[in-house]
Write a structure and sequence with these properties.
Structural class: mainly alpha
Strand content: under 5%
Number of strands: 7
Strand order of the largest sheet: 4-3-5-7-6
Shape: globular
Helix content: 55-70%
Length: 508
């Protein structure tokens, strides 16, 4: 998994959000301030730790800073510092990959302790070859960081409720606090914790009074962790008597956005308020068939085979309840922009599927067959993991029928385009690009690519045209901007995100 992540990450330019996360983290480590980047909590600063060993410029008098232009300042930071931008990116991505591998090790460790080594190996194999986890686990974003802390919080709380940890639920409180400082979506853990506590009370594991005290303790510990991670801002909040803590302000902004929505795409339609069935469709087309089949076979076994007590109950309690509740809450979110927003359910599915299938006759053989399918799927999409769609959905070529944006195109394939153009000795392109990468920085001079209504420019066009698939299908641009290109078959698909059309005029 680490090899696949590292080698594929080296072939990609920055995705849309990476420069912003890296810059925000570096600013927080150097200044202790987050007012410029308030849309995420500060735990993402962990990605910028390697940058502390570099002498980087961080001026606050830039016009982008004064105008609160986050993407503009982040792009300036990445492309004008003394170090090559790929150096800064791979430093941050190295931290992301290390966290992903630690996540996998934690999955294996906890599953082995609770369900045995064979089940742990199955869960780990599913985790290590899952394309969505490989894709988002190598980027400088909060998605995999949140999935990791979400998992840690759920297993710590379940261990306490299951009677495996004595005293106050310190581990659950600490991991809950870390999750809350990784991504504001972690607020979903509060109802999840409450539901898990109710299930433990219903099973008679803990008394009601004990559970109430435990929930109070967990909340208090988590809030203390939040204050500590926000330490510089927390100090200013206390001493300057600001009306609201930055965590509360940021959480309020994100909750408001989750209600207001975000321009998004599904099944050829564009909406600003999303669809309740967006994530079910995402799950159906982005989940690899190997994992899907294993979980489906395991669940089918529950219908005709009486569940055993003990291990299955713990798997259902610790994995299924959090995954189901989080998925349900995600369906109520009006921001529908990617499988990355339901990433926490995939490690839990890996464990739950491994536990369920091991209960069946020939369970190990079934698991081996499903893992083999998953390995083929994972190898087939390398190195373009972000664009993974399962074979039942038609693969990455059919991806734009269903989804766009970070599900397939996040601006990551400029270096691959450069390689393709150089191999064919093409010096420049007419291009319309979705991303923050400096295309010219990578040696690709580009000219204007006309829209559908620019008739004269289209008729006189004599170039190789390149367009990001997100823009090709009208997301974030006026409708039908590139309908004239959609009617043509592309000559190439670079990383499945950049569509190439050779529109050069041939001599008669």
């Amino acid at each position: 998994m680490g090899a696949a992540q590292l080698t594929s990450a080296l072939q990609e330019t920055q995705t849309w959000d990476e420069a912003g996360h890296l810059t925000a983290g570096y600013i927080y480590l150097k200044t202790g301030r987050i007012e410029f980047f308030t849309d995420h909590p500060p735990l993402r600063a962990i990605f910028a730790v390697p940058l502390l060993f570099l002498n980087l410029h961080l001026p606050a008098n830039r016009p982008e800073w004064q105008d609160h232009n986050q993407p503009g300042y982040a792009t300036w930071f990445l492309y004008t510092n003394p170090y090559y931008p790929d150096t800064l990116l791979i430093a941050g991505r190295g931290v992301a990959i290390a966290l992903t591998l630690a996540f996998g090790a934690t999955v294996a460790w906890w599953t082995r302790r609770r369900f045995g080594p064979r089940t742990a190996l199955i869960a780990l194999a599913l985790f290590a070859f899952e394309p969505n986890l490989i894709a988002h686990g190598r980027y400088i974003t909060t998605d995999m960081l949140f999935a990791f802390t979400f998992f840690l919080a759920c297993i710590a709380w379940s261990e306490y409720l299951w009677g495996r940890l004595g005293g106050l639920p310190l581990a659950a409180g600490v991991t809950l606090g870390l999750a809350l400082t990784a991504k504001f979506s972690a607020i979903a853990l509060l109802p999840i914790f409450a539901l898990m506590a109710a299930a433990a009370w219903w099973q008679g594991r803990l008394g009601l009074r004990t559970l109430i005290r435990s929930l109070s303790a967990v909340t208090a510990i988590a809030l203390l962790v939040v204050l500590l991670v926000y330490a510089p801002e927390s100090f200013r909040w206390l001493t300057l008597r600001q009306p609201a803590h930055p965590f509360v302000t940021g959480l309020g902004e994100v909750l408001l956005k989750s209600r207001q929505g975000h321009e998004c795409y599904l099944l050829g339609q564009i909406s600003h308020t999303g669809w309740w069935y967006y994530f079910p469709v995402v799950f159906a087309v982005k989940t690899p068939l190997g994992l899907f089949l294993l979980v489906a076979i395991g669940l089918a076994g529950l219908v005709w085979q009486r569940p055993k007590a003990g291990d299955l109950s713990l798997a259902w309690f610790a994995m299924a309840i959090p995954a189901l509740v989080f998925f349900g809450l995600s369906m109520a979110n009006a921001v529908n922009i990617g499988v990355r927003h339901i990433l926490p359910i995939y490690p839990m599915l890996c464990i739950l599927g491994a536990v369920l299938v091991q209960r069946l006759p020939w369970g190990t053989a079934i698991a081996a067959a499903c893992i083999a399918i998953l390995i083929v799927e994972s190898l087939a999409i390398y190195p373009n993991y972000l664009a993974f769609f399962n074979a039942a959905a038609g693969g990455p070529k059919a991806g734009p029928r269903y989804l766009l944006d970070s599900n397939i195109d996040w601006g990551q394939d400029v270096k691959k385009l450069r390689t393709w153009l150089r191999a064919r000795r093409i010096d420049s392109v007419c291009m319309f690009y979705f991303g923050n990468t400096g295309v010219e920085f990578y040696g690709i001079p580009m000219r204007h690519l006309p829209r559908t209504w620019e008739t004269a420019e289209r008729e006189s066009l004599d170039c190789v045209a390149v367009v990001s698939v997100t823009l090709l299908y009208d997301l974030y641009v006026p409708r039908a901007s590139f309908a004239w290109l959609r009617a043509k078959e592309p000559d190439a698909r670079i990383g499945w995100s950049l569509y190439v059309y050779d529109l050069r005029r041939r001599p008669r």
